[in-house]
Amino acid sequence: MQESASSLTYRITQPEDAPLLSNWLTDPKILQWFPMCDAREIEDAVRIWVGYCKIGSAITALMQGEPCGMANLYIQPYKKQAHTCLFSIIVKEELRGRGIGAQLLEYLMQYAKEKFHIEILHLEVYEGNPAKRLYERLGFKEFGCQTKFIKEEGRYKAKFLMQKYLLG
Amino acid sequence: MVQEPAGLDIRYTYVTDTPYLRQWLLQPEVQKWFPVSEEKEIEDAVQCWIGFSRYSSSITATLDAEPCGVATLFLMPYRKVAHHCLFKLVVNPKHQRKGIGSALLKNLKHLAKNYFHLDLMHIEVYEGNPVVHLLLKHDFHEFARQERFVKDQSGYRARILYESFL
Q1: How many Cβ contacts (< 8 angstroms) between chains A and B?
Q2: Tell me, what DSSP letter sits at residue A129?
Q3: DSSP state of B128
Q4: Average confidence (pLDDT) per 10 residues, chain B, 166 residues
Q5: What is the CATH number of the domain that holds B47?
Q6: ipTM more than 0.95?
Q7: Rounded CA gap, B143 and B104, in Å?
Q8: Looking at the domain assignment, is residue A150 inside a domain?
Q9: Which string of DSSP letters, residue by residue, matches B47-115?
Q10: A101 in helix, strand or coil?
């Protein structure tokens, strides 16, 4: 029987999680939904992501004590915008489809509100990413679309911008 | 149409332009259109902004050799998104409404298209920013509007994102 997402636990991401995050991102099925495209770019993005563990805004989800997903709040450095926050989320490819993303995101929203007093959580998702349906289901609303955001082999892909008010 | 003032020149940004940019951002009438609100934030923003001078993606307008405005392409670090970038533009409030912003934007678009081979460029502005007139004149269109993005003593304001295909 497959383990369900209901048995997830959470902790602050640790620097030691960096190789795991790099490994997950290296999978082309996952990488297609991120802006990076090679090892150097992944390393750069992972360094920035894991760097947020210093302020406790990067979260690792565990299933039976093993990391199965991560999410990060890119806490704003400016006071005027500190009530808003962009986030990223990733679930280990082999464990997708078990509700881990939804549960991790629910946890992240609560955590953002309680620990960082975030009022508006926003995200960027590329055209074709099935995760967009999850975001809609969890109450995120689209507020913009950049039609030519990604360019690969001469073809463009759109980026949708979505947000959710956490205070209701 | 506003005539460009005599003595206006456009050149690449130098690190020595830093104090000018810092000074403009310290002024409340400029600051209200940017995310910064205190000295430390201004310093961080200025260092990041001027840092792009090393890639020659920043230009400075001068009036009689004195800097009066800066416009910068914040080049993207990843290849899949390297065909576009965010840009920022600021003009010394003393010299606004003289056509300097327009000259900077025209030159920046030229730099983006012909030197960096960008397909599009975009900018974030706050609700009420009069620079929107300039953007519309230079073929920018709105592609996103995020309500309540800015929060200060006057309440909430939206951020509006504009882009132009080059």
Answers
A1: 82
A2: -
A3: T
A4: 82 98 96 95 96 97 96 97 98 94 97 98 97 97 98 94 98
A5: 3.40.630.30
A6: no
A7: 22
A8: no
A9: HHHHHGGGGT-EEEEEETTEEEEEEEEE--SSGGGTTEEEEEEEE-GGGTTSSHHHHHHHHHHHHHHHT
A10: helix
Q: Assess if residue A42 is contained within a domain.
A: yes
* Gap between the Cα atoms of A159 and A143, Å rounded: 11
Phi-psi group of B97: left, alpha or beta (phi > 0 → left; psi -120 to 50 → alpha; rest → beta): left
Whether B20 is covered by a domain: the verdict is: yes
Q: Does B144 touch chain A (CB under 8 A)?
A: yes
Residues B120, A17: Cα–Cα separation, whole Å: 36
Give the C-alpha separation, A141 to A123, whole Å.
10
Amino acid identity of residue B1, one-letter, is M
Instruction: For chain A, give the number of residues.
Output: 168
Residues of A with CB under 8 A from a CB of B: 35-38, 41, 44-45, 76-84, 119-120, 122, 143-152, 161, 163, 165
- How far apart CA B140 and CA B155 sit, in angstroms, is 27
The domain tally of chain B equals 1
CB within 8 A of B111, min separation 6: which ones?
B57, B59, B73
Single pTM value for the model: 0.93
Nearest to A70 by CA among A5, A151, A13: A13
Task: Write the CB contacts of B95 (distance below 8 Å, at least 6 apart in sequence).
Answer: B5, B63, B68, B69
A72 domain-assigned? yes
